[in-house]
# Entry
Amino acid sequence: MWIKAMNKENNKAKLLRVQGLINIKMAKACRLVSHEALCVVTGMMPIDIKIEEAARLYQLTKGTANNNTLSDKYMEVRYRQHPAEASIRSTDEKEETGSLHIYTDGSKTEKGVGSGIAIFESGQHIKSVQRRLNKKCTNNQAEQLAILAALQYIEKTQDRQKSHNIHGQ
# Structure
């Protein structure tokens, strides 16, 4: 019922107006702030999207959805595939001779902040670069500096014949 009503622009505008007023009160914002910004600040999903989502779920559970409807089936966490087990490369893809694989990592512990890269060529470890960083650096900054170091290494070698793969940790 709601999805049919949402097809009319005036009904949609009324719902968005009401949600906007609620979001203004929640965020203690001025009325000139956009609806989208208010939804982000308050953490509320726009009502029109929420209604479309509920209608799609209803259609899927009642079996009235067409075959073009895409959705993910809910699965308990214990049955989900662990990200480490996910395939990164297909088995029929052959590694080029001389290709570089650069693994990056950045971390922040009680002992300090650091970033590093490990470079492998044709499966053989050829070089490691480690950097100690200022204690004020965040873990995210350390990760980004490791990626930057990998890119700088690639730029410095400038070997266009090799393929370069950067793997973040």
Observations:
- The radius of gyration is 25 Å.
- Residues 2-71 form one domain.
- The chain has two domains: 2-71, 95-168.
- The chain has five helices and four strands.
